[in-house]
Amino acid sequence: MNNNETANSISFLSEPKGLKSWLFTLDHKRIGILYLGGIMFSFILGGVFAMLIRLELLRPGPDLVSADTYNQLFTLHGAVMIFLFIIPGVPAALGNFVLPLMLGAKDVAFPRLNLASWYIYVVGAAFALYSLHSGAVDTGWTFYTPYSVQTQTSVVSMTLAAFILGFSSIFTGLNFIVTIHKLRAPGQTWFKLPLFVWALYATAIIQVLATPVLGITLLLLILERLFGIGIFDPAMGGDPVLYQHFFWFYSHPAVYIMILPGMGIISELISVFSHKKIFGYKAIAFSSFGIALVSFLVWGHHMFVSGQSEIAAMIFSFLTFLVGIPSGIKVFNWLSTMYKGSISLETPMLYALSFLVLFTIGGLTGIFLGALSVDVHLHDTYFVVAHFHYVMMGGTVMAFLGGLHYWWPKMFGKLYSSLWSKISVALIFIGFNVTFFSQFILGTKGMPRRYYNYLDQFQPLHAFSTVGSWILGLGFLIMFVYLIHSLFRGRRSGPNPWGALTFEWTTPSPPPTYNFKETPRLTHGPYDFDKIAVEETK
Amino acid sequence: MDTTGTLFMPPGQSTLSGEVDSLFYFIFYMSVFFFVLIVAGTIIFVYRYRRRGKAGLTSGVSHNTTLEVTWTVIPLILVLIIFVWGFKTYMRMNVVPKDAIEIKVTGQKWFWSFDYPEGATTVNELVVPVDKPIKLLMSSKDVIHSFFVPAFRMKMDVLPNRYTITWFEAIGAGNYDLLCAEYCGKGHSEMLGKVKVVSDREYAEWLEKGPGTGEGLNPVDFGAQLYKSKACFTCHSVDGTPNIGPSFKGVYGHKASLEKGGETAVDENYLRESILDPQAKIVAGYQPVMPTYQGVLKDKQIDALIAYIKSLKE
Ligand SMILES: [Cu+2]
Hints:
Order of helices and strands of chain A: HHHHHHHHHHHHHEHHE
Number of domains of chain A: 1
Distance between the termini of chain B: 54 Å
Structural class of chain B: alpha+beta
CATH architecture of the domain at 101-208 in chain B: Sandwich
Bound molecules: copper (II) ion
CATH architecture of chain A: Up-down Bundle
Number of helices of chain B: 6
CATH class of chain A: Mainly Alpha
Strand order of the largest sheet of chain B: 3-2-1-5-8
Radius of gyration of chain B: 28 Å
Shape of chain A: globular
Structural class of chain A: mainly alpha
Oligomer: heterodimer
Strand order of the largest sheet of chain A: 1-2
Largest sheet of chain B: 5 strands, mixed
Helix content of chain B: 25-40%
CATH topology of the domain at 101-208 in chain B: Immunoglobulin-like
Number of strands of chain A: 2
Strand content of chain A: under 5%
Largest interface: A-B, 92 and 85 residues
């Protein structure tokens, strides 16, 4: 494969030039980077909202903002982080860049659809920003009826934003399914695919099958608000709990849209930085599918105290426990992969290890919430807040950052500061635990979520959590500085700085527009570290 | 039964709280075990197999059927135990004992009211006898709320279009926090109350006296008490600062300008109308969110509230 490593090929970043060439590009790598820009912007925006929330909660009583503003802040934090950052995060930004490279392909199957999905994302984001300006929503990101039908704030523009963003997600999913079926390199059979590709595939299936349900639900909500069709609002004979069923029918599988691609990244990172064949390849690949399928049948576990029938609660609780098992299997597989490896603690690996610790906590605390009687106490408390932050932030965001640091040299051809990146991971890891572990205890002690004010007994833990958010913020600040610095001052990276075996590392960093000079042929599995000696080319 | 509270749980004060806590701690210790296993494994492997110099070829082991079956089957058995255990207690939480005292709970933005079988009504204070099962028949007047008493490990959503039912039996006298757990807007975090658990005798006496009759109080003091107990304070201040509603300070005798335009004199009749039919005249600059107190307040109580408002001069 060495013929692909010609050093003087022109990188996709430098040719063609000009803003127009970027805005009309069909190159999956450029679209991935456009997405990355939008996603990072959203992450910062959502992060600022989070910092303000924590600051307000430093002490009980009104300090920084009014109750109305606070309610808007937590709604926007949730909506921005979920719809604009975490759902498109791994697939649309990293996946777009990496997937065709991993398959030895020149591009995704439908490059125009790919660009369209980015524009739809931008339009959706514009609606979300517009709603900020026009009296931001205060319903919580879940838009529960009848509150969302009655409130004076701009529910319509925000739900329309989520509706539009859904299409962007569906298009990406569709594109990936076809790409993975049709554009694999010669010799790259299904069981020789990198696990990240398997994860993207399972994710894409959920994106395509579940997102339309969200679209319909939000559309109904908009119709209800504008024309009073009376489907959710009890004042008109509707049923508000029906909304919850519709909403979670999408939003529970959506949790796996968020976490599955992250798990895919972790499989790559742990194998590469342990320099070791992945343990249980098929178990990991199939567990993604197991999760994807069962995830459609567990939505009712968000509604154990909503008055649903006991039989329904029982079935949902049972299936919830089942869907947890494949995640557990993956954790054991990753752990076993490290056994007898040759482990190097580069920054991406530190993110992977953080993931392992935090996701384990996130997963185990999910067992508390799946158990019916315990959930009655914990539902809608800070325990739930802490649990899903451990899964979403400790899981997906850590994986996203690990992936970003792993593929960064490939994307931009530059290496970032190893020292500063390690300092930043450490701060993020510590800050995260300080912020969120305290919230488990707040929750079990009875602190409900979405509270502007709170009883005095909760103050010490709230203050502790707020201090954690400052550490976390500092960690991210350092990260942004050294990443941007690396773009201008970073050392040039060779094609394969980490000594990995998948296709994307056989082409120069950054790759030329056409990715590979000639279609590569697969000669070994993605994790054959027991057979292939590979050089790190920093 | 645990009444002291533990690292994670507040003191448990209902017949079912102990059961919930046992399962909680079972899962907790199981989680600690697996967490330690995984983290210790990670640390040991990272240290033991750290890369020294260049990475050469490594072992190609990628399967071990015994191991893989073990780490699938053991967790599976454990979660099935947890599932059954959780379901059993959940059923107990949902099946109301036959002899329970039934109290009607109404949630509305942003307070709770309780109607007792004997005809009494309270706001934000649920008074119940100890060691007696209490059935709560709940509904909401506006959006969804959720009735949450951490000490009893109980929570149930309160819906606008149907009744939800739950029950509890307190095992110790005392005052316990009641909170709204389903987000319901601006006053969500102020939608607090107390569950006051008293002895049988005290409960009977309390019902006898008829809560909220203002026995032995002059109208102004009685009004001040109602201002607190009927939750007027969540929206109206008495010190002049506007909140969700206008402050009561100095309103009487002045003119209120109305949302529709024009103004009206604030006299006894206007005050009475504002309480019983708040939507009739909306004060300029405020939302029409005040609930009606028709049927909640008795005539004597309305008189007392008016007397109290009149006493709050500028
Ligand atoms: Cu409420």
